[in-house]
Amino acid sequence: MKPREFWPFVLPSVLVMSALMVFPLLFTVYLSFHNFTLGESPRFVGWLNYARTLADERFWSALGFTLLYTVCVIPAQILLGSVLALLLNEVLHLKRLLISGYLLPFIVTPVVGTLVVGWMFRDRGFNSYLLSLLGIHIQWFSDPMAAKALIILYGIWSTVPFALIVLYAALQAMPSEPLEAAIVDGATWLQRVWYVVVPFLRPVLLFIAMIGTMDAFRLFDSVAVMTKGGPGTATETVMYYTYGVSFVELLLGRGSSIVVLSVLIILVILAPLLYRTYRDIVGSR
Amino acid sequence: MIRAATSHHPGLSGHSQRALFLGLAYGVLLVWLILAILPFIWTFLTSIKRPVDAFAYPPVWVFQPTLMAYQQLWLEEGFSKYLINSAIVSVGTVTISISIGCLAGYALSRYRGVSGFWILFAAFVFRALPRMTFLLPFFYIAQLTGTHDTHLLLILILVAINQPFTIWMLRSFFAEIPESLEESAMIDGCNRFQAFWYVIVPITAPGIVTASIFSLLLAYNEFLIPLVLTATRATPLPVAISQFGAEDIRYWSISAAGAVSIALPIVLVILFLQRYLIRGLTAGAVKG
């Protein structure tokens, strides 16, 4: 394809992305150095917004909970997703029904998913009832630890389907020769999984972990609907905190400084994947 | 398959060990199925209970079903308004996003120049960034230009947010189509766009359906963007139901009816097109 054919094709998409993503990103950086509320013109304040953000306890607590969420949800998602995918790969019946059911938490509107799971844990909810039969009474919404656990449990529940389907599809695409060789050598099922299947799935597992990290840093819906960041600020995530500062307190400059900081954190965490993608596209050209 | 076959354990024969393993496998799979769907079943049951039954504790399983909550939701709370808003935004987003995404995805799968590389790489970086990055300036600009609380603004922003993922996915589908196809069409006198439109697009149709489903999920399910950029006129379903008051037990039946009403359209569409969705989930990962 020649350049004069290429540009007309990509132009609409590139224009939309530049106007609605590149420009806003630059504008956010600009805002982060200004003090400003609606109706007034921005006033330059240098690094003040950054200083205030970094000195704010709420920022660190939100970052802490976001990281806690990431390190709890992603391993659980991968472990549960792998076990279920391996088992699903073994059975012959009910597959369509199982997969349709598993997809439900993934496709349903997150606000709705959060509501339906939240109801199970409310005072007269079904899970609270089941737990009370066992003599367990947990104040899911007023105990900080329990509220954190609830957000994390919801996170696992809603992200396992993605890992499960992606891993299941990868398993189906796996060549059978290495496995047969392992069987001939007398390897047990667990040995085969550990020494043959897991290495094969490595790139897929990495992919799931990276998507999971991106999603953890944009975690907002479940917190906003289920706990509203509470009790206190126990379940505030970075995004929920940014939302509060920007759109509740209407400190757009401060909010922008949090956005810029979180973009930097995400880019650092994802640097290995970005580098790999860079190499992949270079390699495929 | 990773068959858990042939036993080397004394005592159990290979056959019965395999049966035990399968029984265990089905058990675990069914437990997760229950965990995945139980909240939805519970919510559906709540939505057809009278408030007094929804309120009952311990929970009741036998009750007089009623559509009262749905009546109240659709007739008195005006839920249809939000459904129409969601429909306008979803259809608008999918249409624009897929149209410009197909053009770009196709060109990116064929062009070998360095600018194609940078477009893809930049798109990938933007895919990683949280929505909030773009939302703050939009909030400001929307207030300045008077486009706050309009469908058009929502559609444009959702299209933009969705573009990186869409062009990556469509590019991978177009890349599977051999270039010789459009080349022979162009030898027969088509120009590049005609070859793309009449030859390549029809063959790539399943991939385009797949990308459309992901666009639809994003547009229909999005919460944060409309929460910030709408007030009353353009409010879509997820924002509407979040304001219904989930904590207040007296509204459980109506909120539950709302949850079912929002989930049902998207679940039906996706279950009907399930194989396309799975194809999309696989495309990213296996090549990933």
UniProtKB/TrEMBL annotation, chain A:
GO cellular component, one term: plasma membrane
Membership in a protein family: Belongs to the binding-protein-dependent transport system permease family.
CDD domains: TM_PBP2 (cd06261)
Keywords carried by this UniProt record: Cell membrane, Membrane, Transmembrane, Transmembrane helix, Transport
Topological type in the membrane: Multi-pass membrane protein
Annotated PANTHER family: ABC TRANSPORTER PERMEASE PROTEIN (PTHR30193), INNER MEMBRANE ABC TRANSPORTER PERMEASE PROTEIN YCJO (PTHR30193:SF37)
Subcellular location, record wording: Cell membrane
SUPFAM superfamilies: MalF N-terminal region-like, MetI-like
Transmembrane domains' residue ranges: 7-33, 59-87, 99-121, 149-171, 192-212, 255-275
Official protein name in the record: Lactose transport system permease protein LacF
Entry's Gene Ontology BP terms: transmembrane transport
Pfam families linked to this entry: BPD_transp_1 (PF00528)
Keyword Transmembrane helix: yes
InterPro entries: ABC_transporter_permease, MetI-like, MetI-like_sf
Domain ABC transmembrane type-1 stretches: 63-275
TrEMBL record, chain B:
Pfam families: BPD_transp_1
Transmembrane segments: 20-42, 82-106, 118-140, 152-174, 195-220, 251-273
GO cellular component assignments: plasma membrane
Keywords on record: Cell membrane, Membrane, Transmembrane, Transmembrane helix, Transport
Location relative to the cell: Cell membrane
InterPro entries: BP-dep_ABC_trans_perm, MetI-like, MetI-like_sf
GO biological process entries: transmembrane transport
SUPFAM superfamilies: MetI-like (SSF161098)
Chief location category: membrane
Membrane topology designation: Multi-pass membrane protein
Annotated ranges, domain ABC transmembrane type-1: 83-273
Family label: Belongs to the binding-protein-dependent transport system permease family.
Protein name: Trehalose transport system permease protein SugB
Encoding gene, per UniProt annotation: sugB_2
